[in-house]
User: Fold this.
Amino acid sequence: MKDVDAALIGMPADQRANFMNSPKRIEELLERLLINQQLANEARAAKLDQDPLFQRAVQQQSDKMLTEQLAMKLRAEVSADIVEPLARERYDVNPDAYAIPGRATVRHILIDTKTRSDAEAKTLAEAARAKALAGEDFVKLVTEYSDDGSKRSNDGEIPDGEGEGLVPEFVAAVKKLKEKGEISPLVKTAFGYHIIKLEARYPAKSQSYDDVKERIISDLANRMRDNRVKEHIDELKALELTAKPEVVASLRTRYVPSATTADPAAPGSR
Assistant:
């Protein structure tokens, strides 16, 4: 049991229960520990653990694990009791920042300019738009005219026509559509010509503090915990713990026998 506890020591306490809630993960962990133990016993029998360099490496690994434990301790010092009042203050300063953004659901027809000339594409797009303005079923027009391969699965629908990942010209055209059923002018992008129809526009929706409380606390706590660790490291850096030049030179010539004690040439100086 202690070996299992030790194997999980580097895992945050709130994640251990979830990890150990899987019989398969437990079996894999136990198998790995048993194999490692067997291999370690073989290494000891061969007296590999008595190598001074190996012992130094073990000490360094121990120091690294202690460093990680200290970081976890420093992070734990930032408790929810400290964070929650700050989270409430952050929400009150700018509640609009936590609103659900508005969106516009649209359908579009794409006439691409890769398989035809620009003039041909524009003429075809104008014909499709004229039919849309005349009231023809837009989904049928998508099927008939659109070169967008995704039309087979979505009938040309884009749930958020102002969302990320869409080209600026397309988004700008969608923003100008105000009424349900409104048809855009031809919109030229790198993909070709688009005809866009507004299906629905959903306004931004505000959220109460209780709606977003857990998210704000989590985000703020993680940031404060990271800062706590960084501040401690910065305090150590302020002590000016620098290596002596003669030690740096000695190590360099030890691992690079052809090197001299002079500084290596700067990149591009030769």
About this structure: The chain has three domains: 1-48, 51-98+217-260, 100-202. Residues 266-270 have pLDDT under 50 and may be disordered. Residues 209-237 form the longest helix (29 residues).
